[in-house]
Amino acid sequence: MLRLAIIGTNWITERFVQAAIEVNEFELTAVYSRTEARASEFASPFNAQAQYFTDLQAMAESDVFDAVYIASPNALHYEQSVLMLENGKHVICEKPIASNITQAEHMYQVAEQNGVVLFEAFKTEYLPNFQLINQNLDKLGKLHKVFINYCQYSSRYQRYLDGENPNTFNPAFSNGSIMDIGFYCVSSAVALFGEPETIKASAHLLDSGVDAHGTVILNYKEHDVVISHSKVSDSNIPSEIQGEAGSMIIEHISECDHIVLKLRGEDAVTLTVPQVENTMTYEASIFAEQIKQGKLCEKAKARALGVSRISTEVRKQVGVVFPADK
User: Fold this and answer.
1) 128-136 and 181-193 helices cross at what angle (nearest 10)?
2) GFO/IDH/MocA-like oxidoreductase domain: from which residue to which, for each copy (predicted)?
3) Given this model, what pLDDT does residue 318 score?
């Protein structure tokens, strides 16, 4: 059983710990929080005997865990991951893995130098129904147009409008639409098609300096991927992949619970396979497998770096600058 630590005591961390325990690969043995009281409260349902830390250096140097799940604000991913990797800990870091491509590349270098696994927690790629997309792409014939859409009105946007400065819309935390909602779109595109030949991006920036919404066009050899992302509006339009023989419709790209295949001259067919309710279990299993094999997944590394390169270029084109870029 792998001993798991967590950094960040929020709802997504709770979901991951539940998933990690459900796959029977991990036990929670360490929790970092700003206060011991919060760490104790978080650990109680999973393991009341877990060790609590309020100092990251002391945590990294401890021997009470083998792997750590990092779900802190985006701007802290790089520093915290490198600290853990340098101390021989395997790391699964919430998306996006880093604030920019320079940080992401260095993180993987540190992982390899220390013989440990670094894995970006992008669950969508490992969902059984996302695999159906790959398995059925050839039925569409030659691809020409892809539209990937994810627009969701943020629960924190009203706080921003009221004059507050929540993390979600604060460049100091390496946030904004392309680094959050838009990440699912970009990462899905890279998981399916690899890195593009060219990138063109536009966005509407808030006064805080981050993007509220935007559009990205990824150009491949024979098809384009148009990405629509927003944190200030909702959309009910599905994503779609168009080929010469038909199209594939994907609702809710991040969760991907089914796809609809519509071939020319034929009725639409809904394709789906069962998925567990806590969809983070799939990424937890992949992370555990890498640790047991003693090597990180090169495909996952390539995808993570590709997405980081794209998001870094998108921000450069639209003028979103983080402290980490300086």
Assistant:
1) 40
2) 139-248
3) 98
CATH 3.40.50.720 maps onto the chain at: 2-123
What tens digit of pLDDT does each residue of 240-252 get?
999 999 999 999 9
pTM above 0.85, yes or no: yes
Q: Which of 235, 227, 263 is nearest to 147 (CA)?
A: 227
Intervals of the chain under pLDDT 70: none
Q: Does domain 2-123 have CATH number 3.30.930.10?
A: no
φ/ψ bin of 7: left (φ > 0), alpha (ψ from -120 to 50), beta (otherwise): beta
Question: Which residue matches tokens 């140097």?
Answer: 61
pLDDT score for 213:
98
Pinpoint the residues of the chain covered by CATH 3.30.360.10. Answer: 125-280+308-325
Contact 214, 201 (CB under 8 A): yes
| Lookup: tokens for 204 | 């509407």
Q: List 243's β-bridge partners, or say none.
A: 143, 246
CATH class of 125-280+308-325: alpha beta
Strands 67-70 and 51-53: unpaired
